[in-house]
Amino acid sequence: MAEARCPASCGELIQGWIAGSEKLISCPINWFSTIEVTSGDARSSRERPLMRSALKLALQSLNIPVTESQGLKISFDSTIPVAKGMASSTADIAATITATYRHFQSELSEQQLASLCARLEPSDSTVFRSLTLFDHKQGIVSAQYGQAGNLDILILESPQQLSTAAYHRIDRRFHLVRSSEKLAEAAHYLAQSIHLKQAGRIGLATTVSAIESQQILPKPHFNDLLRLVEKHDLYGLNVAHSGTVVGLLYHSARQDIEAVLHDVRNSPIAHAYTQYHQCQLISGGVR
């Protein structure tokens, strides 16, 4: 038996056209998909889409016949919302691949894991311990920035869903390229905030990226959310650029999140975002 778990993401810290292609930096949070791979009849597995494909891909990369998958059982434990832009698929895929490797007493690097994940679908950079600027289609790392420090996130979850495949069918290249200067600015803010160990400055970067994302996948009541950030002196907001969730960035010792929640619940925002989760930004990487 082997187990692995990978964190979810509250959308992205930034995503857009950077250095010649669309790239992203995920926002890993303390919410996990845990996968267990054991010897047993595959027909008795409890699994979600792409888990079996991830297991077979891991076997191929280990030079083990794919027919061996018939004798491997998958089970999972995850409450990460699906099709909301919270990296549920990447968490499932990355944890399944890693658990399969561990089942055969093998290990793989973060870059190897990211490359394998990207072969199944565009993936998130939650597989890296450091905040990572990542070409999510090619599985290529462009830059790594280290850790962000302590930061809390109030996740506003919409009942609306959007699959990764549906997002990638949106014709968005024009808007992406047009916003490239703003995204370069956002990437600079992010790198600077980590270098200076000023976690609050991350909000500058995320808010710039979120504003640009409105041209491609608009979030309901976005201006109301910006006003909420200003009213409560929050660090900023971030969004799922290919999903429907929004994150409000704050520090529990500095901001009264109950007051923020009160305002959310008693405003039109509550009609568009019906569930709320208090999480923390954490280091990425499969455990």
Describe what this molecule looks like in 3D.
With 287 residues, the protein is of the alpha+beta class. The chain has one domain: Ribosomal Protein S5, domain 2. 35% of the residues lie in helices and 25% in strands. The protein contains ten helices and nine strands. The strands form three sheets. A four-stranded antiparallel β-sheet has the order 7-8-6-9. A hairpin with a 2-residue loop joins strand 1 and strand 2. Helix 1 crosses helix 2 and helix 6 packs antiparallel against helix 7. It is globular.
Describe the protein's topology.
Elements: E1 2-18, E2 21-39, H1 51-61, E3 72-78, H2 88-103, H3 110-120, E4 132-135, E5 140-144, E6 152-157, H4 164-168, H5 173-178, H6 180-195, H7 202-213, H8 222-231, E7 236-239, E8 246-250, H9 257-265, H10 269-272, E9 275-280
Antiparallel strand pairs: 1-2, 2-3, 4-5, 6-8, 6-9, 7-8
Helix pairs in contact: 1-2, 2-3, 6-7
CATH architecture: 2-Layer Sandwich
Proportion of residues in extended strands: 25-35%
Low-confidence stretches: none
The H-and-E topology, N to C, reads as: EEHEHHEEEHHHHHEEHHE
> Would you tell me which CATH topology applies?
Ribosomal Protein S5, domain 2
Helix count equals: 10
Number of domains: 1
Helix share, percent: 25-40%
Number of beta strands: 9
Structural class by SSE content: alpha+beta
Terminus-to-terminus distance: 15 Å
Mean pLDDT: 95
Coarse shape: globular
Radius of gyration from the alpha-carbon trace, in angstroms: 19 Å
CATH C-level class is Alpha Beta
What summary fits the major beta sheet?
A: 4 strands, antiparallel
